[in-house]
Amino acid sequence: MSVTEPAPVAPPPAPPVHEGILRRQSLRESAARTYARSLPIVPVRARGLTIEGADGRRYLDCLSGAGTLALGHNHPVVLEAIRKVIDSGAPLHVLDLATPVKDAFTTELFATLPREFADNARIQFCGPAGTDAVEAAFKLVRAATGRDGLLTFTGAYHGMTAGALEASGGARDVRVTRLPFPQDYRCPFGIGGERGAALGARWTEHLLDDEKGGVPAPAGMIVEPVQGEGGVNPAPDAWLRRMREITRARSIPLIADEVQTGVGRTGAFWAVEHSGIVPDVMVLSKAIGGSLPLAVIVYRSELDLWQPGAHAGTFRGNQLAMAAGAATLAYVRENGLAERAAALGARMLDSLRKLRVDHPGIGDVRGRGLMIGLELVDPEAAPLPAEADDHAPAPPPDPALARAVQQECLDRGLIVELGGRHSAVVRLLPPLTLTDEQASAVVDRLADALAAAERSPHRRAAAGPTT
Ligand code: PMP
């Protein structure tokens, strides 16, 4: 008697690999993870503007490693520079020793810096992140001036280590005095424009000179030429020049935090060039490492009053980052990518402003170069508290709409970042190598996403405010 074999039962289909990876990430990684929450993507390949996920989906990446990837992902000149170091047999870890790779990086970096600044500058290689360079800058000016306090601005973002965090908007520290950063759309003085910025400068000056103002002479002032995380707020050039005059007249070192604005991003190689100011210290990171971790401060040599070893650290000699960074700096310089960012950014701002006709949820479109932000608002809600007559009051920000737009963008294969005080600013930080066609595709997808988010109150409600 033959026994009939039971028919094989097909095993249930295995869940896609990327789902397992995402599930394990949410089980194992810290609750503090950030981008991973709003972008459930498992990148496996990337080139230029495009990222491919493990599920085979492709995305246009306008987050660019939080503004790091000046040349997009895996640019051939960056890959070639990294391979060259590896193939040469050069040591990858060298502490802060001199190497040909470091020498070439420093030479290239100094060649891009404003002449007047570079001619009399020192460089300090810090720990690898932007926040490490911010800490180094604070320590430097405190050592050089013998003072303690710092002047910072409302809405600022300088990093997540203790000192940098204290200097960022939202933190409380008695050594930090926070001054009003000019904002045209939500002007703290209710008048916006040049007059609003001029009042901010006047307040700064008054506070510093008021013996009863409670602000002793500070060690330095730190400013972002365009606030990035704070919601893409460009500092007006005239205001920045005033800050330079005010600080110079009182011997207060001026620190320009160009971690996000540097390397062509805003349409000039360094954003301070728009105003022509020469700062005392520049804080540089992100793009200078060509996608690998690298951070430095460059400063006026008179401030170099540190003792040997005053600011040390194990990871200050990342050879691959220096090679990738030097290749990136040279490519941006030789190919005029700052000018390209200025022209393309202006055109994108123009196209995005035109969307306001059909999308009343776009309260403001602002930016400089390829650092662009759309502040989303609830046009039907009452405007925020009474403002002066000559400046139209802005409707309240709409973080739920911004979050829904971000998700609708993702559904359409577009990665965007959110920022601003209420996480209601959709931010675009595309690579400077963006083509005209890609720029149009980004604007089109964003417009579609806006329409979809506005049509779908459920999605908006589900998106809720970002945390
Ligand atoms: N300064 C600015 C202006 C930044 O935008 C950032 C990061 N977004 C930092 C400092 C901190 O850099 P990191 O995240 O590499 O520590």
Average pLDDT for all residues: 93
Q: What overall geometry do the principal axes of the alpha carbons give?
A: globular
Give the end-to-end Cα distance, rounded to a whole number of Å.
69 Å
Approximately how much beta-strand content do the residues carry?
5-15%
Tell me the total number of β-strands: 17
Q: Which structural class is indicated by helix and strand composition?
A: alpha/beta
Task: Flag low-confidence runs.
Answer: none
The helical percent reads 25-40%
Number of domains: 2
Give Rg in angstroms: 24 Å
CATH fourth-tier homologous superfamily of the largest domain: Type I PLP-dependent aspartate aminotransferase-like (Major domain)
Number of helices: 16
Profile the largest sheet: 7 strands, mixed
Bound molecules: 4'-deoxy-4'-aminopyridoxal-5'-phosphate
The CATH class of the largest domain turns out to be Alpha Beta
CATH fold assignment of the largest domain: Aspartate Aminotransferase, domain 2
User: Order of strands in the sheet with the most strands?
Assistant: 4-12-11-10-7-5-6
What's the architecture of the largest domain, going by CATH? 3-Layer(aba) Sandwich
